[in-house]
Design goal:
This protein is of the alpha+beta class and about 200 residues long. It is built from 1 helix and 8 strands. The protein has one helix at about 1-45, and strands at about 70, 85, 100-115, 125-130, 145-150, 160-180, 185-195, 195-200. Strands 1, 2, 3, 4, 5, 6, 7 and 8 form an 8-stranded antiparallel beta sheet that branches. It is globular and about 40 Å long.
């Protein structure tokens, strides 16, 4: 009896030990297998997320309506109807593709950080908000560090959000049509700055 009992206990212990070891191996492998795709995904979403210069949730196309008071450029480098290359894409799929100029406007373009009104994570260094998309903008450009209220709808939770001006650039901004590198057709995208474009060869 004692031998049988000892043998049964030893077998049960070995089975338990093997199961535990197997479980540990699975546990150490699973996070690794899940970790890689998630970090790859975050890299793929690099220009489309909600942090840094990310833009996930952004409506890349727009209705084509422009803010009240935004003035058309009199003699833009890239006239309406012409083509240009997107040299510096601030979102995934933009860089290196051809754009058709839909509108050209002289204004001040801002990089802003803000807390979305829908409670999402803080959006850092969003490009671009134009002067006329800021509440009570007036005639004088805002300076770095100033707190403002946004009146733009580029992303969910943007309209009405409190924002900090990170930088300002007096420039011509363009509304463009383009097809992204992943095949998405984007219409009336707001905005790209003149420095982000180059002449089509």
């Amino acid at each position: 009896m004692n031998k049988k009992l000892t043998l049964a206990m030893t077998s049960a212990f070995l089975a338990f030990a093997l199961t535990a070891c197997g479980g540990n191996n699975e546990n150490t492998q699973e996070p690794n297998s899940e970790e890689q795709p998630s970090s790859e995904e975050s890299m793929e979403e690099g220009h489309e997320g909600h942090e840094g210069m990310d833009h996930s949730g952004m409506d890349h196309s727009s209705s084509g309506e422009v803010p009240e008071g935004l003035k058309e450029a009199e003699n833009p480098t890239y006239p309406v109807g012409s083509q240009a290359m997107i040299e510096k894409g601030h979102m995934k799929g933009m860089e290196g593709v051809e754009a058709t100029i839909v509108g050209a406007y002289d204004t001040v373009a801002y990089v802003v950080s803000y807390d979305p009104t829908n409670g999402g994570e803080r959006v850092k260094d969003h490009k671009w908000i134009v002067h006329e998309e800021i509440k009570d903008a007036g005639d004088k450009p805002f300076e770095q560090g100033e707190e403002v209220t946004l009146e733009a709808n580029h992303m969910e939770g943007m309209n009405g959000a409190k924002a900090t001006i990170e930088s300002a650039e007096e420039t011509t901004v363009y509304m463009i049509d383009y097809t992204s590198t992943d095949g998405e057709e984007v219409k009336n995208h707001q905005w790209v700055t003149e420095s982000e474009l180059s002449a089509k060869e």
